[in-house]
Every structure is written in structure tokens, then in C-alpha cells.
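Table S2 (continued). Query chain:
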Amino acid sequence: MSWPRAPGPRASCSTPGTTRPRSARRGRLTGNVPRASRGPSARRAAGEPCRGSPAPPRQRPPVSAPARRPPPTSPPSPPCSGFHYDGTDRTFFEGWYFKVTIPEKPGCSFAFIYSVEDPEGGTGRSASCCQVMGPSDGYVVQWAPEVGAYWGARHALELGNTFAAAPGARPPRGLLPEGQWAGAVEEGWQVGPRTHQGRIVATRAPGELASTVDSCRWSYTTRPVTGWGGTRAAEQRSTAGWAAALPVFEPHWQVCMSHGLATGWVEWGGERFEFADAPAYAEKNWGGQFPEKWFWAQCNAFGGHPGLALTAGGGRRGLLGVPGLKEDVAMVGVHHEGRFYGVLPSDDGASVTWRVAPWGEWEVQAQSATAFVQLRATCAPGAGTLLRAPTAEGGMVPFCKDTFAGSVVLTVREVTGDGRFGRTVVDGARSDACALEVGGGPWWEAWEAEAAMKEPLKSAVRLPVESLTAPLVPVVPWPLKPPGL
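Corresponding output:
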């Protein structure tokens, strides 16, 4: 199995993330993609498709309806949670990925994927987009070649977009209480650290990838439990190190919430799914385009291990301003019982190796001076759906493939000071609700590689810049803060 290549120059790379690249010619998807991967026919290999209850008739509150205020401010988010656009005229995208898993309904997860391209407007690729991946690998997208109604907070995880405002209402320019937003927006979405709501209808979008339902509505709140690096504010860190504050890698990647608990509902077509304290996850990407090729795995719904959260990803990325220079990098991060077990390619003496098939098999092994992590994941050949992601010339086109129906086995061990294995932290934890992805290419055979971050960036990223500057960030005047921090 392979992914068709996007038009124009090949994308340079980084590690994976929220908005996912796919390769395709604009307007027509090509390549060896089985028909079963293009819509609801891509059911789970075993068991019946996930079903919800009939959706109730829609009732729109008036614009002046009493509003329920968002929950109190959440704990501090990891760095790089804000909107990173710096106003320059270079090609730029930013994308966000939010996932909710409903463990008691096999095959039932939702991923809300938002993106904005060339947010200044006026270019041929300026656009706003919302994709939702739903039960049984279903899919719906709303896309518009306008960005004027998009907004994003510069230093906080707050963003939204209006595709269509309610009669007599103006598109919001910031986070609103739930009822007020529902009365002002016909089609669109808004996200805060805890609040999350939207409604979209299926529209045409670049590339031949059709929606499988005609609409989607959602409203839920999230209680963040673990960011990236730990549960306390002082433990939060950038996924790719302090260099994420600079336009160095293409693209950048940040896990905003490795584990949280979501409560609310989603109306998917004519079905309604309600959930309480369902595992939730959030990440984002930003830059010029997605990697040349990449893989990704994420799971925080392990039976018998509440709060255990895994994120792994790797890609062939480029370095901005260094044409032709690329490197294979990968990382693994596990949060468990208040501790973080992470292996990054910049860690001194760290090793991250992987073998990932074009589709169906993911195997990653990582070791640092303090931790060893191994994961093996598989999915059925017919599982998965294509998703759109940003490319250099084609914009948002089908460029990767995802599934919620992955089976994963995870092992984590401590490593002692002399390099030997110590205590087994996680012994073969299993889940059948693992999110899996491959993208870019095309690649026709298994990708086997070891992370090899190039100097001098490898040594520079290890410098304790983040820990030294973190106390200064709250007191730095707003205009002097880099966008996104």
C-alpha cells in the first residue's frame, strides 16, 4: 500500500502531528489505495460497527439565550500551545488534532482536526478546514478558501472559525460561552483549554476524498490530566525542545494534552454519542508543510491502566533554510502514574529505532539513559481512512491514512546508571483502541531506520534553555513574546 504524492516539490519533514499530510493530485486521488479505505466500508475487521442513539431534533437557542460559562481556567498548558503565525509572507499552516475515545463502544472514537493555511489571506492556498474522523473510520470535512473568520489566541490554546454565521450575528473573534456561541454560529467551531464545540456540514475540498456523513455536531468539556512531561505546571515542556520557539524544523510538533477526561456528546450524521470521562488527547503542528514521510501512534485507553498514555512518532524532516538537508528522527513519550518516560533523538546516548510497514504494522524501540520503551501495534488491512493534510503546492489534500482500531502492546522499563534494565514499569499493557497513522511518500516497503539528529542542532537542543527561561515567560511583555508560547 502506498500514498500518492502531492503535486510540486516533495515536502520536507519533521515528526507527525495533528493535521496530517496525504499525497494526491489536486482533484483526483491516485495510487494503490483499496476502495475499502475510502469511507464507511472500512469497518473494523471484527465486530459490528459502532452505533449511537438517534439524534434529537436540532433546536437553536436565540442569540440572547442565557449562556453557560466555560469551566474555570485549566492548569497551565505546555509551551507552544498558542497560535504561531508571525505575520510573514512565507507559506504557513497550523493544525490541531483533538481525539476522544469511547472505550465501552469498540471502534468508537472521534478526532477533530482543524487547520488554517496562509492565515494572512490573499494567496491561492489560503483556506480554513475542519475534518472529523468518526466511528468505523468514517469521515466528514468542511473546507473554505477564506480565512477572515478564523481566530487564534497568540499565547493560549484558544481558537475558532466561522464558516457561516447565524442571521444577524457577526463571526466571533474569541472564545464565547457555549450558549452565546451556539446562537451566533451556524457552521464552525471553537476550542478552549476545556471547552470544545462545533457543527459542520460536508462540502467539497481539494482532492478526491468524500465525506461519509452529511454533518457533525459536538459539544464537550475536557478536564486535562497530563500535559507533556508531567501533571504539574513546572514539568511541562516542548515536545521537540526549546528550538520549537524558532522556525527551525519543518514542521514543528507539540503534544498539548497527553491525557484528559472528556464529557459531552457528538452527533454523527443521524446518530448521537454521549460520553462521560472518556480519554481525550490533543496535539498540534505548524510550519510550511508536513514531512516527506512519517508514522505515528497514540493511545491513552489501556485496560487496567487508567491514565497510561503513549505517544510515538517519527518522520523524515527538513531544516528550514537548508535546502536538501533532511534527517530521520523519532521520539516516544509515555506518561504513567505521575512520571514521564520519554526518549528523544536529542538525548545524549539515546537510541530510537523503528520498523513500520506501508500499512498494518508499527514497531518502535527506544532507550535512553533512564528508560526503555517498546511498542508493537497492528491493524487489519481494511481498517483506516485517508485524511487531508498540508502540502507545499497542493494545500490540504489527502496525504496520510489513519485508524482508531489499532491493537498495541506496550512495555516500559527503567534503565539503571550502568545501562542495565531495572524495574519493569509497564509490562505488556494492551489496547484495541490505539490510533495509528502513516503518511507521505509514496513508500512501497517497510521503513526501517534509526533516529539520527544532525549536529550542531542536536547539541544545541540539549542546552537547558527552556528550564532557564520558563520563569521569565510570564513576565515578558506581550509584544516581545514569540508567537505560540
